[in-house]
Amino acid sequence: MGLKHGKYAYVRISEGRYVKVRLLKNRAEDLPERYLVVGPVVKKPPINATILDISELPTNVAERIINQYYEVLVK
């Protein structure tokens, strides 16, 4: 899956663990609905990927990403 001009980013969940998220541009950055988990956990994101740290995101956004990540794991 490509990065498609800023539509996707990788969120660092922990050291050496990243999850791919879709960024919806028509929503505010502090809304949890802006971030949708679309990929599995990877150890090494692409070189040109935008990396977001989960600790730098608002708490409600971080909680939603973690919840979506576990939902993807269960499926």
* CATH C-level category: Alpha Beta
- In the CATH scheme, what's the topology name? Double Stranded RNA Binding Domain
CATH architecture: 2-Layer Sandwich
| Mean pLDDT figure | 87
Percent of residues in beta strands: 25-35%
Give a written overview of the molecule.
The chain is α+β, with helices and mostly antiparallel strands. It has one domain: Double Stranded RNA Binding Domain (2-Layer Sandwich), CATH 3.30.160. It is built from 1 helix and 4 strands. The protein has a 4-stranded mixed beta sheet, covered by helices on one side. The longest helix is centred in the C-terminal third of the chain and has 16 residues.
How would the blueprint of this fold be written?
Elements: E1 8-14, E2 17-23, E3 35-42, E4 51-53, H1 59-74
Parallel strand pairs: 1-4
Antiparallel strand pairs: 1-2, 2-3
Give a quick precis of the structure.
With 75 residues, this protein is an alpha+beta fold. The protein has 1 helix and 4 strands, in the order ββββα.
Keywords:
single chain; alpha+beta; Double Stranded RNA Binding Domain; four-stranded mixed beta sheet; 1 helix; globular
